[in-house]
Amino acid sequence: MTPHPASRVLPLPGKFLRFVLVGGICTLLNLATIWFVTTRLGWHYLVAAAISFFAVNGVGFVFNKYLTFTQVLRPSFREIRRYYIVMSGSLALNLGLMFVMVDALGIHYLLSSVTITLLFMIFNFLAHLRWTFAP
């Protein structure tokens, strides 16, 4: 596959490591948002997870576009749409799994969130690599 002329070539392991770094930053922002909305505002943890999704995913898009996948062009509507399609699928699965882990299994909501993030890491990376930011 020929690299897109507007992207800087970065080997796959380097892209994955950057994706993990971006994911770590977004996970910390996600946990802080969920904790704040749940603990300080007293809202349900699933509502907090949905709010966090919308608050943090813009940051994830920008960091992944320019740092992970080293795209140098301005974001296209196609990329933004694809990014949010992938992440919306992850959100739906995330909320379902969080409900099972917290309400059915009694696992703390923050630990559940981290576990689910780790479970989705490879899928999200491959979806963004092969579809969202593909030339």
Written account of the structure:
It is a multi-pass membrane protein. InterPro entries: GtrA_CellWall_Glycosyl, GtrA_DPMS_TM. It is found in: Membrane. This is GtrA/DPMS transmembrane domain-containing protein. This protein is mainly α. The protein has helices at residues 12-40, 45-68, 77-104, 109-132. The chain has one domain (12-132). The chain contains four helices and no strands. Helix 1 (12-40) runs antiparallel to helix 4 (109-132), helix 2 (45-68) runs antiparallel to helix 3 (77-104) and helix 3 runs antiparallel to helix 4. The N and C termini lie close together (10 Å). The model is unreliable at 1-7 (pLDDT under 50).
Q: What is the total tally of β strands?
A: 0
Structural class: mainly alpha
Estimate what percentage of residues fall within beta strands: under 5%
Output the number of helix runs: 4
Distance separating the two termini: 10 Å
Low-confidence stretches: 1-7
Count of distinct structural domains: 1
Give the radius of gyration: 16 Å
Quaternary structure state of the chains depicted = single chain
- What's the helical proportion of residues? over 70%
- What value does the average pLDDT take? 91
Shape: elongated
| Most strands sheet | none
Strand/helix succession? HHHH
